[in-house]
Amino acid sequence: MDAFEKTALSTDSFKHVIDGKLADSPTNAEAINPSTGEVFAHVPVATREQLEETIAAAERAFPTWSAKAWGERADILRALAALIERHAERFNTMIMREVGKDRASAAYEVMSASSWLRAYASHTLQDEVSTGATGRVSQVRYRPYGVCGAIIAFNFPLVLCVLKLGHSLLVGNCLIIKVPPTSPCVALKFIELAQSIVPPGVLSALYGGSDLGQWIVEHPRIWRISFTGSTAAGRAILSSAAPHVKNITLELGGNDPAIVLPDVDVKKVAQHLFLAATSNAGQICFNTKRLYIHEDVYDAFRDEIVALARAAVVGDPFDPETTIGPVQNQRQYDKLKGLMADSKDKGYKIAFECEAPAHGEKSKGYFIPVTILDNPPEDSRVVREEQFGPIIPLLKWRDDGEVVARANSDEYGFSATLWGSDMKRLRSIADRLFYGMVWINEWGVIDGDHLITGTKHSGGGVESSKYALSSWAYIQSFTCKESLD
After folding, report:
1. Catalytic residue (choose from 98, 109, 251, 386)
2. Which of 16, 20, 139, 284 measures 20 to 30 Å from 321, CA to CA?
3. Structurally, what CATH architecture does the domain formed by 7-252+459-478 represent?
4. pTM for the full model?
5. Domain extent listing, the chain
6. Is 402 among the residues known to form the active site?
């Protein structure tokens, strides 16, 4: 560890990163620990002038950065991966504190961030050259946009930094990251540490609210935007970016179904789907959010899911007994409490609701009990809305065509899973699903070589994998005729 890293890690101070240096602002915001509801840090709120300064620094850095050899930029990604690995335990602790993840989930995020960077470093874009009979040389070239912006969500602050910066920097862009408003600290610290590796202005970080996001999206000298967040925010970004006809990738919400056939091993599949529904307290875009269980195994499956929920421990991530932490912020907590109240008011059958620390005088944490709903109506809020929390509706089905229609009836189209032994039947159902990602007999298999994509209201474009690399470049047709006629 060099002196720069030692200094950066010796303090819990969190600042903007502008032109390779730390920067403060006149106004600060509070960073809240979701397990306690208490303030653990203050972060500066960027001004419009600081955004202009950041853009100017990126523009100065761009010519030299984009002129570097592809292999040099790939080596930078590998160095960033090594940096994460050196400080994995520190990042784990920070994620547990500010996101509320249990220790295993935090460690998984940190491990994924480093491994994805290494995968991205191996990706390439090859120019295509052809020579005609007349001596004309034609070339298709991939060119970096210049200054780009990334707006990331609260649930995976480190991985989402990596998801955006890996390909952006590899292609030769300079990137400004707007860190999440409710979980900014790990992203700010990572980008601070990264300044020992990347040249000044190449990778910057700013903290702010929706006004900062709008300034970034509307700025005429930021040429591309990559956004991860809610569908409502994605619509606003499309509207704000339209006057500048910006290139945009949107990874938005999901209401992801699982379809369980009658020929499953109930115990095994229930374990997989309980994890799929409750990992990160249900706050993953592709968490399973609707479980369609065939009527022949419905009762047995429900009982097995209830048993798993009964064994779960909702609590402080730093308690070694905890298996599910809090949701990350007050807004999400209030939304989930509203969904639970609506389900109870309408008399939906609750198969199980586990114990969780109460939000009151003794605990200000955002703890939501794991709740299993027994076959609520298809048009209920808890089925039609993206919960983004550990509330699991179980739904009974009988006919393949019926369950496909129900799964596809949602406005979202992020991911779906299917479970069973009859592969021909599984493939037949999968081929009729209108989702960007479909897994059969597994869930959440994502790495640096696996694309992340959705359809309908779940977004547009591709993140991660070699298929996303070209989205960080514009394609240029370059033609050269050797002599004048």
Report:
1. 251
2. 284
3. 3-Layer(aba) Sandwich (3.40)
4. 0.95
5. 7-252+459-478, 256-448
6. no
